Amino acid sequence: MRILAIETATWLASVAVADGERIVAERDQLTQGRHAAVLLPAIRDVLGSAGLTVRDLDLIGVSVGPGSFTGLRVGLSVAKTLGYAAGIRVVGVPTLEALAYAAPNDSASIVAALDARKGELYAAAFRREGGALRMVLEEQLVEAPVLLGKLPRPCTIIGDATETYGNWFREQLGSRVTVLPFPEWGPRARIVAQLAAARAQESESMPDEPRYLRPPEAQVHRAKVA
């Protein structure tokens, strides 16, 4: 199965082409908030490197959140447009799950955490069971001190929240936490491809909107005006 995978939930955009379990081409690029300008050239690059066109694909996998509002909108829009134009199924992959699978294989308990700004994080926790991860703390929008009380210990924390909260977690948990630096450790399209292939066997429909967990600012503003 030939899969195009798209990950734009953070300011690190990641695109990959997989053929079965083999990653044929991939590209990671810092967006600096310019997801729309970066994504399409990156897709052209990986497809060209793989010697494929969109119509040669069997599936498109895309990270659906939570994460950057702009990045998620761009990624989902591009995935659905390409899928519709080429008649290819599009499968959504939860961002925090894909992020957790990017952690080292020797991490028994993994906390996937993204900076949601305003003193909050998007977070979920997973426990490794064999080669799979089982969610033990459902994805949520949470303040850092509240999350601290819910964390499994010891644990490994991965995601862009480590840029803001990494030192704080180390101060609070000491040797009971491993904090992975971002973007060296972040969500990757190669993981999205693997999870999309597995989810393609299910009947789950593609969401119309990203999984924000928090209403977009424009929606909040309209509600206040109303």
Structure overview:
The protein is of the alpha/beta class. It folds into two domains: 2-95 and 187-225, 2-Layer Sandwich (Nucleotidyltransferase, domain 5); 103-179, ATPase, nucleotide binding domain (Nucleotidyltransferase, domain 5, 2-Layer Sandwich), CATH 3.30.420.40. It contains seven helices and ten strands. It has helices at residues 35-50, 69-86, 95-101, 144-148, 161-173, 189-199, 217-225, and strands spanning 2-7, 12-19, 22-30, 59-63, 89-93, 109-117, 120-129, 132-143, 155-158, 177-179. The strands form two sheets. A five-stranded mixed beta sheet has the order 3-2-1-4-5, sandwiched between helices. A five-stranded mixed beta sheet has the order 8-7-6-9-10, with helices on both faces. Helix 1 (35-50) packs across helix 2. It is globular, with a radius of gyration of 17 Å.
